Automatic annotation (TrEMBL):
Protein name as annotated: Ent-kaurenoic acid oxidase
Metabolic or biological pathway: Plant hormone biosynthesis; gibberellin biosynthesis; Hormone biosynthesis
Keywords from the UniProt entry: Heme, Iron, Membrane, Metal-binding, Monooxygenase, Oxidoreductase, Transmembrane, Transmembrane helix
Record-linked PROSITE patterns: CYTOCHROME_P450 (PS00086)
GO biological process: brassinosteroid biosynthetic process; brassinosteroid homeostasis; gibberellin biosynthetic process; sterol metabolic process
Length: 473
């Protein structure tokens, strides 16, 4: 214990000495832990032991409910922010805070993706890609393929017997996102992309140790393969454009190639590839996990299931006989289903933390965040705060009825100018899946009490081994 205290104090002094006595006294409570690892061991232990809330809980136990704590995370001095008001302040303040993702995330997702570029470039990229991703015409075009793919997948799963539900969901959502972004991708390309993404995803929140045996090393090799495949497709597409060859349909890659800002500037190859890497990763991982958990919660709560199903039946009955499938107007009628999805996002916390960096010395809640220090916004702590969400460990979609979350209290897609640009597409995809499931299927889990693994995303360790049963046509 004495050695531990000495080492921690020495490490803290080394990291904070340059601030001077006055500025050090203005820091939030906390400590830097041991050199190199800091609080990473405690973080990994909490999440891998099945009790992720214990990580922030340990700071609360030692230092009280101050809402902000200092630590050493991902090789950097870091301020942990755990309350709605403080999260809102940081996320909405583009002047004092810039993106601050860990080195592993930046290297794997890409230096020119939305995650890493600074304000002006982020604004430009967001403007260029807004219509191709979330625009009305784009969503209308994507909806038909999503609808057909979900219906076909559920039929196939119901005939297959026992399946790994999450694995199949990931394959389905990956197929959807690849079709949206790369219409012409063949099965071989699809398989190569999926394998690379699986390996890449496991390294996104790892320490950036590029040595054999570490998650980042395997993930970094996967990124190289991924970039090679995407660059090859992009080269082929640019040749087609140069020759004036027309295509039967326009996908996301086409839209990114032709996107042009008010100054006539277009996206370069690295920007296009990194944007695709970011969206292909987030677009299928998050949607698959949220869809799986929402399905589980619906099946475990018969009253919620019945209410959600009744809404979908009412929507189906209102569709004209001449209309094939659902459209965006029908999607926007799914009010209760939207509440189910929001509650799933709050309850599960697929993205439990986001990252910023202080561009200058700034005070938040009377605590100093020094220039250059990283800031972690712990949305998990916000979403499970009983003062914000009464009885937070209860799955209760009705809490969202006639309720508009105060800024900073609901953060699954972020906040402010960095709000996830694909949130509308993700919610559309999840809604269409749940629409079909509610109307015609049920889920029976093989191991309903299966242990949960929390990194990189919360999931049952058996990937939700289950049977999908068709109950009606």
């Amino acid at each position: 214990m004495v050695i531990d205290a000495i080492v921690r104090r020495a490490h803290g002094w080394a990291r904070e000495a340059s601030l001077g006595a006055k500025r050090r006294a203005q820091l939030p409570p906390g400590d830097m832990g041991w050199p190199v690892v800091g609080a990473m061991w405690a973080f990994l232990w909490a999440f891998k032991s099945g009790n992720p809330n214990s990580f922030i809980g340990s700071f609360i136990r030692r230092y009280g409910r101050t809402g902000m704590y200092r630590a050493f995370m991902f090789s950097s001095p870091t301020i942990l922010v755990t309350t709605p008001d403080a999260c809102k302040r940081v996320l909405m303040d583009d002047e004092n805070f810039v993106e601050g993702w860990p080195k592993a995330t930046v290297e794997l997702i890409g230096r020119k993706s939305f995650l890493t570029v600074h304000h002006e470039e982020h604004r430009r990229l967001r403007k260029l890609t807004a219509a191709p991703i979330n625009g009305f015409d784009a969503l209308s075009m994507y909806l038909g393929f999503i609808d057909r793919t979900v219906a076909e997948s559920l039929r196939r799963w119901s005939d297959a017997g026992e399946i790994e539900f999450l694995t199949e969901m990931r394959r389905m959502t990956f197929r959807i996102i690849v079709q949206i972004f790369l219409t012409a991708a063949d099965d071989e390309t699809m398989l190569a992309l999926e394998r690379s993404y699986t390996d890449l995803n496991h390294g996104v929140r790892a320490m950036a140790i590029n040595l054999p045996g570490f998650a980042f090393h395997k993930a970094f090799k996967a990124r190289k393969k991924l970039v090679s495949v995407l660059q090859g497709l992009l080269n082929k597409r640019r040749v087609e454009w140069a020759k004036g060859l027309s295509r039967s349909s326009t996908d996301m890659m086409d839209r990114l190639i032709e996107a042009e800002d008010e100054h006539g500037r277009r996206l370069d190859d690295e920007e296009i590839v990194d944007i695709l890497v970011m969206y292909l990763n987030a677009g299928h991982e998050s949607s698959a996990h949220v869809s799986m958990w929402a399905t589980i919660f619906l099946q475990e709560n018969p009253e919620i299931f019945a209410k959600a199903k009744a809404e979908q039946e009412e929507i189906i009955q209102s569709i004209p006989k001449t209309q094939k499938g659902i459209n965006l107007r029908d999607f926007r009628k799914m009010e209760y289903l939207s509440q189910v999805i929001d509650e799933t996002l709050r309850f599960v916390n697929i993205s439990f933390v986001s990252f910023r960096e202080a561009a200058k010395d700034v005070f938040v809640n009377d605590y100093l965040i020094p220039k250059g220090w990283k800031v972690q916004l712990w949305s998990r702590s916000v979403h499970m705060d009983p003062e914000v969400y009464p009885d937070p460990k209860k799955f209760n979609p009705s809490r969202w009825e006639n309720y508009s979350a105060r800024a900073g209290t609901f953060l699954p897609f972020g906040l402010g100018t960095r709000l996830c640009p694909g949130n509308d597409l993700a919610k559309l995809e999840i809604s269409v899946f749940l629409h079909h499931f509610l109307l015609g299927y049920k889920l029976t889990r093989t191991n309903p009490c299966c242990r949960i693994r929390y990194l990189p995303h919360p999931r049952p360790v058996d990937n939700c081994l289950a049977k999908i049963t068709r109950v009606c046509d």
